[in-house]
Amino acid sequence: MDVKEAIVKAKGYVADMFQDEGVVNIGLEEIRLDDEDHNWLITVGFSRVAKGHAAAGRALENVIGPNPNLPRTYKVVKLHKHDGDFISITNRSLEN
Question: 20 to 30 A Cα–Cα from 31, which one of 6, 9, 20, 73?
Fold first, then answer.
């Protein structure tokens, strides 16, 4: 699986797994091929809007762009390099 396919899959997994949590502004943050097991490690960032406001948040975002005041969450999606099968989603810790 090439890098572009891996990115699409990773963003799709995040959108699917967190669909009930009002995620908006899903985007690629970083990507790398693990040196040891050669799997894709793809960091995906997103924001969450209050329950019941997700649809409105997405519609407004389409008009004026992402809300910079919403905190971002970062997840690392690990996929098999060859077939893109899902391995894990973990939290991406932010270093100061």
Answer: 20
